[in-house]
Amino acid sequence: MSFSSWGNALYSGRKSYNFIGNRKYLLIAGAILMAISVLAMSVLGLERSIDFKGGTEFTVSSVSGADQGPAQNVVNANPKLKGSTVNSVGASSVRVQSVSLDTNDKRQVVTDLAKAYSVSEAKVAATTIGPSWGADVTYKALQSLIIFFLLVSLMLWAYFRTWTMAVSALFALCHDVLITGLVLALTRVEISPATIIGVLTILGYSLYDTVVVFDKVRELSVDFEQQTRSTYGELVNLAINQTLVRSINTSVVALLPVTSILLISWVALGGGTLRDISLALFVGMIAGTLSSILIAPSLLIVLRSRSTKIAAHTQKVLDKRASGSDMDTEDAKDTIRVAHPLKAGHHQGQQAQPKRTARSKR
Question: Could you read off the pLDDT of 54-104 as tens digits, one per residue?
Fold first, then answer.
């Protein structure tokens, strides 16, 4: 079966994956990953950049090959540079980040780095970021995340007019943030302001994907109580299958440039430049795609199944199936309209285009 045929089979309902039937396992797996993420970030911590914790940064430019060895030797020889990090920045620069140093110590480090790389001291730039600046950047980052979640909550409630979809989408967003934090904690990649930008970007991406799935759920479940062929959970499962190909295509297209940037930053540029934002985008996009398909709809069913209306309709459908009675024509017509919408992508090319009457030649 080709990819297009597979997509058409999913959309028409001829082929289906039982995501909702396995919702308990999916939610348990997601909850376990989130718990592991919280534990890893609590034990290992996140490697914050100098922008968040403050300190002194030294950048040696015009270095052939951006070898970190000489800078690491300087760090090891100076007790006041204990705990400093050394990274390559591009193909011709090396960066050393340390705790805040006074003027004399900073001047000594500049001299040592210049000698280590056989360059003039003018090629070694030293920048100090105070702790108050780092605290302010941290506060702004947390503030931006809180404002984002509040605005998302209001938007989802206003759009879908139900708190269950809003809560499910927010839970999926929390899942994406924690999974991204887990990978950053394990890889020890620095958290910089660019990383926060990447996190906000993937939250918007994940939210868009979740809204598309929920919008299809709303479309399929219009007047679902008037038919007895499909339960609400089955309609949600159909919505996931119908949007599955779109989610895969969107994710692949979005991941291609991000993967390229990540590989270039990690291999060609030595891991310093662009790695903070590209890794967050790469992990977050994958987590966002999975959460919009597996986590958010599963939680939606768990929350909405407690509704009296949905529970009564589900029982009615199950009783109808158990009795083996046939549905009347009108009921069957409604069922087809709700559970099997028109197939997309089945066009006839030029044969379906209007015919233009040929003009007579003069």
Answer: 788 888 887 776 677 888 888 888 888 887 878 777 667 788 888 888 888
Is residue 15 classed as helix, strand or coil in its secondary structure?
A: coil
Separation between Cα atoms, residue 225 and residue 231, nearest integer Å: 9
Regarding whether 60 and 159 lie in a shared domain, the answer is no
- Euclidean distance between CA atoms 67 and 95, whole angstroms: 11
Residue 347 lies in a domain: no
Q: Chain-centre distance of CA 293, in angstroms?
A: 12
What is the pLDDT averaged over residues 182-203?
A: 85
Q: What is the pLDDT of residues 293-329, one digit of tens each?
A: 999 999 999 998 888 888 888 888 888 888 876 444 4
CATH code at position 304: 1.20.1640.10
| 227 compared with 217, residue with greater pLDDT | 217
Clarify whether residues 125 and 228 are in a common domain.
no
Specify whether 105 is located in the same domain as 175. no
User: Which of the residue ranges 133-137, 256-260, 330-334 would you say has the lowest mean pLDDT?
Assistant: 330-334
CB contact at 8 A, 143 and 135: no
Q: How far apart are CA 288 and CA 169, in angstroms?
A: 11
Domain span at residue 34?
15-48+133-314
What b/e string do you get for 138-149 counting C-beta neighbours within 10 Å, with b at 16 or more? beebeeebeebe
Distance CA 332, CA 338 (A): 10
Domain assignment of residue 319, yes or no: no
Q: Which residues 6+ apart lie within 8 Å of 193 measured at CB?
A: 49, 51, 137, 141
Q: How far is it, in rounded angstroms, from Cα 46 to Cα 41?
A: 6
The one-character DSSP state at 23 is: H
Q: Express each pLDDT in 218-265 by its tens digit.
A: 888 888 888 788 888 888 998 999 888 888 888 888 899 888 888 887
Other beta carbons less than 10 A from residue 186's beta carbon: 12
Q: Same domain, yes or no, for 77 and 116?
A: yes
Other beta carbons less than 10 A from residue 223's beta carbon: 9
CB atoms within 10 A of CB 220: 22
3-class secondary structure for 290-310? HHHHHHHHHHHHHHHCCCHHH
If asked whether residues 168 and 247 sit together in one domain, one would say yes
